[in-house]
Amino acid sequence: MRLIPRVRSGISRAVSVHNAQIIDLAAVREARQMGMFRAQALRALDRNREALEHLFRTGDLFNPAGAFEGEGLLETRRHLQRLLMVLDELSGEGPVPAARSSEQVHALFTELEQLVGKMDRMAERAEAALRES
Question: Structurally, how many domains does the chain consist of?
């Protein structure tokens, strides 16, 4: 690696000509945030599956209260799947091209935060109902 002195307004500094690596901290932050959202969604999806299995295994799914809880769990599952789709859209891993403009990215992150909030409230309600039964 060869260093060339660079002079700008009387200040000199060494600049690397080869092997320069620029890290976009905003992209790293977004990737970490998406990873956290994905991990949280996958954990919630597992809890949701376990709750549905519990309702089915105990037979509670077939009485009116259990059917109501099962419906809530399925709605939660739908929100979780939408959350994972939005994450795929943000990262460009899904069938939809990745969002490019900052407005699109901001709108998707806002939707993610809303979905995570809904998901948490629904999961808490379902867990409380399971503890009662």
Answer: 1
